[in-house]
């Protein structure tokens, strides 16, 4: 941190302003499953995408579309990419946020030394300024080939709090979790086997308040490592759970699992009643989309 920003010789690729720092912190924190975690950032005329991954088996993306920002000025050619520390970015953003105050911050890239610059712009008395060192972007180790499973997609939407609770409860039985979908009776079953057996079932018609949507025309069953499945919900913001939003789980080719969450990036005090889930309701523009991709366990 420093008291005043350096002067840039060239116009930056991106200058944008945001009035919901806490919303961005919530969105980025949801994909921070390790203390020391690197991320790849891609910027374009459509917005900002942040990507993290682990062991070629788990990948997460945070989509911050340009509509989330008060202003979004983009002048680069192509889609610049750079790497940075996700933890450092979240910690820097937290320094701008304080209880009862929602500051407006400006985000600029690149600075004179290719750094990411953040500064407060809503006060004439105090200016918080931070620089985050970036690096040449690493190559993403795997491309999540998420094709449809046959012709009809297999998916269900469940209240985020219920999904997190189910995954948390499955920690003790085993390191591998089985997810079973069956059309008759329409239900989703989470099952852990190992030190003990635990099965959590969500019947569609009996629990329509928890299981919001269900699309399945055949019985399928896939297994996933518990540590990767847990990473998809372990750091979901309390505001998401409190707002009773839904998370959508979709099964792609070979059992590739996509889990999608919605995180509000609206200014505090502004409530958007129409973005609670993925069931086709009107979506607010000020929503960050979080996607996790989890590879299934291979049969031995």
Please tell me the total number of domains.
Answer: 2
| CATH-scheme architecture of the largest domain | Box
Low-confidence stretches: 1-6, 272-276, 279-283
CATH class of the largest domain: Alpha Beta
Give the oligomeric state.
Answer: single chain
Mean pLDDT: 86
Q: Give the class from helix and strand content and strand pairing.
A: mainly beta
Largest sheet: 9 strands, antiparallel
Radius of gyration: 20 Å
Secondary structure tally: strands = 18
Helical residue percent?
A: 10-25%
Measured distance between first and last alpha carbons: 52 Å
> β content, as a range?
35-45%
CATH topology name of the largest domain: Proliferating Cell Nuclear Antigen
Family: Belongs to the rad1 family.
GO cellular component, one term: checkpoint clamp complex
Keywords: DNA damage, DNA repair, Nucleus
Pfam family, one: Rad1
What does the model show?
There is one protein chain. The chain has 300 residues and is mainly β. It has 2 domains: 14-132, DNA Polymerase III, subunit A, domain 2 (DNA Polymerase III, Chain A, domain 2, Roll); 154-294, Proliferating Cell Nuclear Antigen (Box), CATH 3.70.10.10. It is built from 5 helices and 18 strands. It has helices at 21-29, 86-96, 160-169, 226-231, 238-242, and strands at residues 14-18, 38-44, 47-54, 58-65, 71-74, 81-85, 105-109, 116-120, 129-132, 154-159, 176-182, 187-193, 197-203, 211-215, 220-225, 246-251, 257-264, 287-294. The protein has a 9-stranded antiparallel sheet. A 5-stranded antiparallel sheet has the order 5-1-7-8-9, covered by helices on one side. A hairpin with a 5-residue loop joins β16 and β17 (257-264). α1 runs antiparallel to α2 (86-96). The chain is elongated. Mean pLDDT is 86; it is low at 1-6, 272-276 and 279-283.
